[in-house]
């Protein structure tokens, strides 16, 4: 740049060519002045005027090269991509004499131009810039240009999946040891899969595995393998014409071979090899394949491998979701039950157990979970010295399973341990403990648990309604029926309380009268449940209780109407069997005191 300044400061000579040269020197000075003042737009115009005037002036080639090197960054800043490319093209092509530092500067500036154009979405300009470097066989920056060229295809919204795969594969083939070769490989595999060119995806994946990669990318490589395995499985199962090339047994063999090849991986620091344990994603690969192969023993082995390796629970969730999405509920249930059956096995990760338990709970498999919970104690769930989020989640699910299956004493023990020992202070947990304590604990203890839940509940109306129901329940247990009814009536009248809770509260009002043997008042209260929430499960409960109240009053015909209505409208209700038994036990004759049942 010192030479540049000296030349631009020299006085002009006389003559036409010399006058043109003088004008160009003036334009360069003007451009530099604009740059110093921060006016890059004016500087770009001045530089461009200089470059365009070279053909009319006797400027030595070396000086032209200097001007072009000064002009290109300014043009790039102004997003004048094509002008910048034209400015740099003679330099990159070595049509002008350059010193080695100048040649390096020209190539680096061209790559900067390509990246800026790529970021701005000017893909044709980016391709021209990257391509000019990629075409130079002896350039040390040729690989960077080729990578940029491949990336212009990747971000092109009009490029096909196949075109992207080919571009990335070409880069990997030409520069297999480049630091970004694993990333390009991953992109090639993914896009060949999307293009349904599984053989080409497998070919590129073989390059990825054979080439070695940093430890930091090992998990990503295995994730790619999982996608490829799934694609192979889909091809095998959905396209019989490919059976000669890939069948389920071949797929399992391919996966087993991949896993056995993955016992070592290159480190980031050097080319030495370090052993690493098979990961959860590898186990998921075998799980997907063995499910397709139909071998129960291999599937069971793959599930076990996943259970002991899935530290995050991610691949367990992926596997369960995969089978569920494929409408293979049997395999999903088998997998989840197998993992939950190992609650007491410390080799299985807590995250995998929690993922399987969550799947079963969402499927309503409470009996399966309760059975598994019966084989362990809460301390078996918490292997770590401090409770982990996954262990807390698993603990909650198992406690809920015991609650759902009416094992009240066991559920109470699990909820108490979760709160008192593990420190779970979430409102939902405290509420569940308060509910269970209201059934099984003495009133002072139940009240204490309810107060703890109330403190955590805040002012939210839905939470307050739940708490009011529990407080009313404790009032009933203490034979404070009027107090309980007063609380329940506040819930029924609550405009911001969800309908289901209002219906439940109205049913409980009927229960308070029933317990006081005020059967007529109980009937009146039960009748009002349907008007509050016609589709609520509390309607069925109210019908059976109203029927029992009518029986107590000797009005068997009205009782029969209640039971018959319940059976007809709520045949799947847990109260339906009780209604059938009571209906069958009613006397054949009508009572003399029946009146029309208004419903």
Which characteristics define this entry?
Serine Threonine Protein Phosphatase 5, Tetratricopeptide repeat, mainly alpha, 599 residues, disordered C terminus, 31 helices
If you compute it from the alpha carbons, what radius of gyration comes out, rounded to the nearest whole angstrom? 39 Å
Number of strands: 2
Note the beta-strand portion: under 5%
Give a short account of the largest sheet. 2 strands, antiparallel
Domain count: the total is 5
Number of helices: 31
In the CATH hierarchy, the third-tier topology of the largest domain is known as Serine Threonine Protein Phosphatase 5, Tetratricopeptide repeat
At the first level of CATH, what is the class of the largest domain?
A: Mainly Alpha
Q: Secondary-structure map with pairings?
A:
Elements: H1 2-9, H2 16-36, H3 40-52, H4 61-77, H5 81-92, H6 100-120, H7 123-134, H8 142-154, H9 161-174, H10 181-194, H11 198-210, H12 218-238, H13 248-261, E1 264-266, E2 273-275, H14 280-293, H15 296-309, H16 314-325, H17 329-340, H18 350-362, H19 366-373, H20 378-381, H21 389-404, H22 408-421, H23 427-440, H24 443-457, H25 461-477, H26 481-493, H27 499-515, H28 519-532, H29 537-552, H30 556-569, H31 576-585
Antiparallel strand pairs: 1-2
Helix pairs in contact: 2-3, 3-4, 4-5, 4-6, 5-6, 5-7, 6-7, 6-8, 7-8, 8-9, 9-10, 10-11, 10-12, 11-12, 12-14, 13-14, 14-15, 14-16, 16-17, 16-18, 17-18, 18-21, 19-21, 21-22, 22-23, 23-24, 23-25, 24-25, 25-26, 25-27, 26-27, 27-28, 27-29, 28-29, 29-30, 29-31, 30-31
